[in-house]
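Hypothesis: this fold can be encoded by more than one sequence.
Test: take the structure tokens below, design a sequence, compare later.
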């Protein structure tokens, strides 16, 4: 049994990947084809978190390689980035059969892997792709209300900023949502700049919403969840 202590002691993403291959913490290992621990840069400033591997991801062992992944790549490239500049992971590291929603027990079982990945990467910005990853961290938020908004909270010993985006698969064939996702995506560079403002991190303002000329629609709330 891969226990939490073992996962917490993993010193690198490679070690986590090895542990994922041996994982039987939930039953999804029985139906998986490949392990899908995550992909990208161990020193990424930006980490995307999706829901769970689908059929293509299960076959190839890499997150977001199907139709939703192509759409995600387009948006990443529109910022002048490559997949290798960022890190992409899912809440679940193994595919739920027939692409059903992750069960809470599965997400709980997989959580130590995601948590350790975040600790090792220590990204400046965590971006949720869809409500399943968002509710793992912010159970009370409604994605239709908060997509495109950034939140910060104390997480794993640091002041972490999170951005909520619609899931690319949900937006793919829905014209309105697709445009919304693309527009929300364009806010990423601005949010990164905002995080870079040292005073802002050291002395977070008391106001719930921070407004400036360029960040009228960027709301950063302080919320403590864990
Ligand atoms: N959807 C996800 O949430 N993750 C993937 O890796 C692919 C599709």
């Amino acid at each position: 049994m891969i226990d939490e202590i073992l996962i917490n002691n993993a010193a690198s993403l490679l070690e986590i990947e090895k542990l994922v291959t041996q994982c039987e913490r939930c039953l999804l290992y029985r139906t998986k084809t490949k392990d899908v621990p995550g992909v990208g840069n161990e020193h990424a400033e930006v980490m995307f978190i999706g829901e769970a591997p689908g059929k293509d991801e299960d076959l190839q062992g890499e997150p977001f390689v199907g139709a939703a992944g192509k759409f995600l790549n387009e948006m990443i490239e529109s910022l002048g980035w490559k997949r290798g500049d960022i890190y992409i992971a899912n809440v679940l590291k193994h595919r739920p059969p027939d692409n059903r929603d992750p069960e809470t027990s599965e997400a709980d079982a997989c959580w130590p892997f995601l948590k350790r990945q975040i600790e090792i990467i220590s990204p400046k910005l965590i971006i949720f792709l869809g409500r399943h990853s968002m509710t793992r961290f912010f159970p009370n938020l409604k994605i239709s209300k908060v997509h495109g908004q950034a939140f910060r909270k104390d997480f794993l010993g640091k002041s972490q900023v999170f951005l909520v985006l619609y899931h690319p698969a949900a937006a793919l064939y829905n014209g309105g949502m697709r445009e919304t996702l693309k527009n929300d995506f364009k806010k990423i560079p601005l949010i990164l700049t905002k995080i870079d403002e040292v005073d802002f991190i050291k002395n977070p303002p008391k106001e719930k919403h921070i407004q400036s000329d360029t960040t009228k629609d960027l709301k950063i709330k302080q919320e403590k969840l864990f």
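Residues 37 and 93 are 5 Å apart (CA to CA). The two ends are 26 Å apart (CA to CA).
Hypothesis status: open.
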